[in-house]
């Protein structure tokens, strides 16, 4: 799979993001749907990744810089034809490694509380994300879970694991 920084100009990517927005608005009240549209994702503080296999779009994920030490994951989406095939795991691994390589110390995210979001929450938990209080401009919301991953701790555990 080829994961690349994307300029959000391709029709396939725009279509996938529109599907993402539709699902977010269908599963969460308007005040609790925090997904960004294509124009917002083109912000200079966001790095947007798309994942391709044989010329077919598999998924996408964005990283938004909150501070020089802290980033937020946004717009994680796997194409319908690629669900349960490991695409989300590969995208999340890529994003965490990218953030770590850029010197960020923490990765956080907001996701929904509804059953629809359970596979995403399970994936984040598998990667070591823990539940936390709202961060950045978020407020406590019964429709939102907030999660975070300490990259400094992850890096330490990774190096410790390699020496044993």
From TrEMBL:
Organism: Vibrio eleionomae
Taxonomic classification: Bacteria, Pseudomonadati, Pseudomonadota, Gammaproteobacteria, Vibrionales
PROSITE patterns: GNAT
Highest rank taxon of the organism: Bacteria
Keywords for this protein: Acyltransferase, Transferase
Coiled-coil positions: none
CDD domains, sorted: NAT_SF
Ranges of residues in domain N-acetyltransferase: 3-152
UniProt name for this protein: GNAT family N-acetyltransferase
